[in-house]
Structure formats: C-alpha cells, structure tokens
Amino acid sequence: MTDMIFVNLPVADLAESTAFYEALGFKKNERFSNEQASGMVWSEAIHVMLLDHTFYSTFTDKKIIDAKAVSGVLNCLSFEDKAEVDAFHDAAKSAGAIEPRPIEDQGFMYGGSIEDPDGHIWETMWMDPNAAEMGPEAFAAEQA
To answer: Where is the signal peptide, in residue numbers (predicted)?
Structure first.
C-alpha cells in the first residue's frame, strides 16, 4: 500500500466545502463520505477529509479554531508545471477563494496560496526539478 496522508479539516458547511474542493479538481470518494464528512481525493497519496464541526469534535477535545482569524497549519500542493499552478488558482478564484498570497515567480519556484471558505490555506508550488534536487542555494549559484 502506498504511504498516504489524510488532512482532516473542520468545515462549517459540508456541502459548500465539498463543492469548493470538487471545483479545484478533488474527487469525492463516496465510500468515505456521509452527512458528516466528505472524503476528497487529490492523488493516490493525498486525501482531504472535510468534517463538519460536530464530527470533527469527536476526534479532539480542543476548541476548533477560526481559520479565518488564526493560522494553525499551511498545507502545500506541488504541481508538474506553472500552467497547472495557474489553472488551480483560476479554478479556486472561480469557486470563491481568495488569494492571501498571489502567484509569484521566483525563477526556481513558482506559486502562491488560496484560502477555502473556512479560511484553511493551501499553498501551491512548482519547483524546477534541478533546484529540487540541488537545493535552491546551489541551484542559484549554478545559474549565476
């Protein structure tokens, strides 16, 4: 079995959040979805569980943060090329997302961030494969 990550996010409106993530290209896994949760698949290894507040609260005694006011985590998705980053941002903005950090081109890396309806931030990035292998400083030195 492939190593996987499941990102569990508390959401105020499950239907709205499910539609938002579907607009970004996530696929809803009906086997892991019900009236309290939507299992959203990004890739074979990355899944996002959207959990309504009541269900989320069964997993922790901690207070659910207001992600629009407090940052608890920054998630990041990588893409094959700059065009995929652009397409993701376009889809997110069309679905109502805001861009706390618009796309920046830093040469070896390209990306920005979007915020979902509950305030959860997803960073986006494409990195030059050589920079990823060498590290950004060594890559910059070689380019100079």
So the answer is: none
